[in-house]
């Protein structure tokens, strides 16, 4: 490659790295402030304004119905925290159908049930439009909230208003996705911290209590006969045993983690350890929900990340490493991407010609119907990727 070409490649690599860092910083900033309440709090006002309506409100759903939580333009509190079962009223019909529903006059509309005529009349609402806020979960679209717009007095919602409200609902769905990702990230961070606390307490306080107990027992057997002292030492030994039991119970509580958190917690801990050990920035990016996996697949995905980080540490001379985890159509994928020099040339199949660790990963993944690749970017950097099919898809 010419000097000019090398310079251009270096510039492209720097630009890619800058963009990646900027995106990750922006993502991390969003995840620190977003939650479900913040994601939906301003949506009611946006719905009212987008549809040119007198009122807008949002119902949060949990699969068995919805509760109207956020309102804009209402005159009373009659709609606040109103429970809306599936199939009832305009919002319940949206939950049942998964599509927009509109009526020109709520209290006389034949297409809906009328359990809520009283509260709607107290707000003097007439025409009403509701659309689903949709999120993809488990491979299908689910209604996670309902967006409403309503008029007072004569009027109706046309197709333009429906499209405008659907646009606000789509934006709200994106905000909810970020909020859920933030919650997952916070839960993973908390669980990882609990794991570190567990190890620290076991190694420090646990060891100290064991030592105290052993010394007390030695004193009881070696001191001259002294009933009073023996009694006091016996009480001290009982206190130490009780403290040790309480510590074990606390350690068990700290170690509790739901199965779906086990994999991201483990990967986050490897990134943290790698960064502390090498000084190279390492981030875990979780690309959506990952359903719980069996122990064999979880262990193999963790092994792939550990091998990727080890290769970066030994060969790459990288300044940044990004570990990603996410579900793809056919299974679960992890990737370890760095911006350093390639560790070794890859073969035609994307697997390096040498490197026992990666070759063992290839063999283990193949037994489960998965695959491993090692790709060297022409602009610099290497990505080790493992894809495993979900159980039952081998």
UniProtKB/TrEMBL annotation:
Matching InterPro entries: GAF, GAF-like_dom_sf, HATPase_C_sf, HATPase_dom, Sensor_HK_TwoCompSys, Sig_transdc_His_kin_sub3_dim/P
CDD domains according to UniProt: HATPase_UhpB-NarQ-NarX-like (cd16917)
Swiss-Prot/TrEMBL keywords: Kinase, Transferase, Two-component regulatory system
A Pfam match: GAF
Name the UniProt record assigns to this protein: GAF domain-containing protein
Domain Histidine kinase/HSP90-like ATPase: 296-392
Domain GAF: 35-186
Transcription regulation in keyword set: no
Organism for this UniProt entry: Pseudonocardia humida
Organism placement in taxonomy: Bacteria, Bacillati, Actinomycetota, Actinomycetes, Pseudonocardiales
SMART domains: GAF (SM00065), HATPase_c (SM00387)
Membrane-spanning residues: none
